[in-house]
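Backbone shape codes:
***
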Amino acid sequence: MPEHTSPDAPETGVRSLSLVALVRACRPRQWLKNALVFAAPAAAGVLGTVQGLLGALIAFVAFCLAAGGTYLLNDAADVEADRRHPRKRHRPIAAGLVSVRLAWIVGALLVVLAPVFAALSGDWRLPAVVVGYLVLTFAYTYWLKHEVVVDLVAVAGCHVIRAFAGAVAVDVPVTSWFLVVISLGSLQLVAGKREAELRAAGGGNSTRAILAAYTPGYLSGVRMMSSGAMIVTYCLWALNDHPGPFYGISIVPFLLIVLRHNLLVDRGVGEEPEELALRDRPTQVFVALLLVALAFGIYLP
């Protein structure tokens, strides 16, 4: 007998592909940035407790929902510009795999769900921080990304908010050392990203209009200033009133991470900083060594 093929099979396949494309449009690789919410709980030594881990996970999921929603809304708004970009034109919305209307609907839904999910922490401050992140993100998308220098600080501020949310989620204090290191590190990454984008444009037209206001020398200077100040701040923190050798040892892999990032940006890599963490083996090794040294320093008596 001939094999019977269900008429619903093609439709099911299309739906599956659409769902995969929708998930891709949320840029799950970018969610790696949300791991910053674990920084403060880990530094405070509470990540090993059930309450601390649960609070950090709630913050992480809330920011993944917020990030996915804002990426959908941002790509829906920039769809025409993305279609003229050699790399961004392959994004699901720009490529036509996800309709602009669906992106607006799902993006808005995720944005609403993010602070609602954050409320599961039982502390009103975490939903408030998530809302603050969303406000800053939308302000960047529709206004701040067109303002020279301010756009750098705005993107870096989104990273700082993530790190601050982790502290709020588990109710631990945020030290000045922590905020300064996170702020400078975020500014280094953002400056490196813009520098790599500017070099990729080759001095020609770019879909990111603000790049025309920058020069490689300026962005390189911001990156080096940020990384230098961050190294000094981290060294002072690591060597200030910390018993045992592990905090001091952590300076070595920390320095290697910063130097490696600067080298890669100078080579023309760095448009997507999260890709460096996922693909660059030396960076992965240095990060692992840093985490091990800090874990020993924090959790060993």
About this structure: The mean pLDDT is 88. The first helix runs from residue 8 to 25.
